[in-house]
Amino acid sequence: MANPSLLILAGDGIGPEVMDVVKRIISWFGDKRDLTFDVSEDLVGGAAYDAHGVPLHDDTMAKAQEVDAVLLGAVGGPNYDDLDFSVKPERGLLRLRKEMDLFANLRPAQCFDALADFSSLKKELIAGLDIMIVRELTSGVYFGEPRGIHVEDNMRVGINTQRYTEAEIERAARAAFELAKKRGNKVCSMEKANVMESGILWRDVVNEVHQADYADVELSHMYADNGAMQLVRAPKQFDVILTDNLFGDILSDCAAMLTGSLGMLPSASLGLPMANGRPKAMYEPVHGSAPDITGQGKANPIACILSFAMALRYSFDQGTEADRLETAIEKVLADGARTGDLMGPEGGTPLSTTEMGDVILAALDASL
Ligand code: IPM
Ligand code: MG
Asked: How many domains does the chain fold into?
């Protein structure tokens, strides 16, 4: 059988730095675990704009549709702030999500024991935290029409539309229920059914899917504003949180920070199964391009490495190897390995991006 294929889109800012470490990890699995990937690379975001005048070239889009999984670093940066909206780096990312139809965005917020002190919350509130946010990723106000800035009666008006079809809500809900069955068997769905019709429909459809096929999963509903409050008040009450595109964007940043550093959080964006049975998939760290530390070797590569671990698990059915990689990361953190974002008040010398890669590779070697 042919090797599974990966398209790496390192993107902008710290994307290429953290991706360099991930490439070494990918090679390690080829050398030591006989798990070889056919890796190709291309441009996205500002890097693609610089080369082609667009944040995602059509050829790159076509490649992304063909590979078994895409690994993305980060997009955006201050050089591109003044670009026209249609060619901003973020548009490249949104085009990938939309055209690959990656409707289920999985954002785990897990607290590593060694880092429990880094949270802005009290340690006992987050020790052992393990939440999975399922964010709908291809619809809602990010893509709804009409949109734009118009002039009405000599006044500018900005318009975006929150729009969800039953089918869109249903497939996101199914993804959340399926995940819950493999975890704590609980789903909390968040919307604003108190003020939005799309929220009323969301709640109805989630209830219908639940009654029809997942009655054994514990389901609750929360208004998204209360959800935000509960996430910082008592985050361990949650197992799987199901929510729409915009609320999911906000709630997932909040959940991520509970764990101490955005530099630790991976994500998977999954679509429908392809002909080979694997889902359309893109994996990316939740952190952005971090222009403030770009090029200084300070970035934490762990979120990007954990995103590759999610690829092993969700695209390639390599749960044991994903566990191996996650355990290696837990081990180096327990041994005190820290990049700058993980330095506590006790100080010490932070590892560079490459050095963090070195210790993780050593821990992988030791796992054999
Ligand atoms: C995210 C990011 C993106 C989003 C941006 C970069 C377009 O914030 O993945 O959470 O808003 O979805
Ligand atoms: Mg975001």
From this structure: 2
